[in-house]
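Ticket reopened. Same input as before:
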Amino acid sequence: MKTRDRIIQASLEMFNEQGERNVTTNHIAAALSISPGNLYYHFKNKQQIIYDIYLIYEKRVDVNLQVPTDRVLTINDKLTYLQSIFQGLWDFRFLHRDLQHLLQNDEELHKRYNIFFKRCLKSTQDIYFGLRESGMLNANDADLRALALNTWILVTSWFGFIHSNLLIENEQEESRELLNAGIYQIFAMERPFLKEEFRGPVAKLVEQLGLSLDQLSVLPS
Amino acid sequence: MKTRDRIIQASLEMFNEQGERNVTTNHIAAALSISPGNLYYHFKNKQQIIYDIYLIYEKRVDVNLQVPTDRVLTINDKLTYLQSIFQGLWDFRFLHRDLQHLLQNDEELHKRYNIFFKRCLKSTQDIYFGLRESGMLNANDADLRALALNTWILVTSWFGFIHSNLLIENEQEESRELLNAGIYQIFAMERPFLKEEFRGPVAKLVEQLGLSLDQLSVLPS
DNA sequence: TTATTATTAGAGTCATTACTCTAAAGGTCA
DNA sequence: TGACCTTTAGAGTAATGACTCTAATAATAA
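Engineering reply: fixed in the latest deploy. New output:
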């Protein structure tokens, strides 16, 4: 693999595990056993590394959120959306963790992220409108717009919440369960809008995920 | 005012406005026109300042979230809860903004925050259970537990979301509107669980707040 | 008044960190 | 082979930031 790509990969891993604030360019170089000079030959500065990682993330989310125009949406689509989005959030979790600071220090990134956010919110709304057209949801426009925004905030805050409130020894092992718990919470928010005849099937789907947050021992019951 | 209190007050203001990461102990001392030595006479280190600020925040939230045992809950109670909680979040907004990093660097704080979180989640659940007992909500236990958790995440992430996604020139002026928009989003999440006869009054209450996020021009419509 | 304690100033230290600079090594193509 | 471009090493720098130390000054008590 090219040195440039190795730097991006190592940075992403280290940022995710330790937080961007705690990872210096010297650390990254040391982890790869290359010199700082070498790192700065490939990247103008630390911001540039973050920006490049962000671009990969953005691309991935854009792909994941595409709304099919040739067919009608199903429950399974919704699940697929959530799974791929949560997986992306996990793989790039440092981004939302430190988002405010990253945006504050990089105007270019901030502008780009704002456009991205609007695009995502639009897609999320379109998905909900699509599900309503498929006859699954019972809700007016204002309901769905508020729902889309709440979904966005919940999803992007999920791993931050997890990290702050649940003490986790081995992040990697638990990630699948925590990810599913997040999906469960989103489904719980949508449930009251589901038409009666779809509640059974959706409940079954959620059950197959195997875990609700209720089963995590840290929460009051 | 005592120097110690002035340090806390100035720190809180600066942390909120610039982010904890961007405010050094030297900055704080300079802002107060005192020497760094003086600051360190009153506080062992920067963590200590943060910890002390956190204690004030925690106390305030605990008071705000108290559930009355001598009477039944009303819609107005819910509004009052949300208003006081959001106001607290605004006044201490740096805390949730940088929470992950703060907890990572202070085990004592992390432990204390975890206990606090559980207490808050319990209170939030109790409030929802109380509203159901008052005959306003139509939901089962699992619904309300999920709702309580989603409420907590939304509320604590609200200003972070605002800060990342809405470009704001003058924070102070806009805070009231943004705060109300947050309340609107929470009500939107609860609405489907409201019994028919309460939807009118609640809608009226929400209307009196004057603003939904729909009216903020940054969002797609 | 005098002894003692609390508070403050401010120069200074030590570690960290983003980033630079120069020179060397490696690869490629005529 | 040799000229040239790309990649790399690694020492070094300048700024920053959390924190320390000493001595001076106020406040208080005896």
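Chain B has a mean pLDDT of 92. Residues 3, 34-38, 41-42 of chain B lie near DNA strand C (CB under 10 Å from a C1'). Please confirm and we'll close it.
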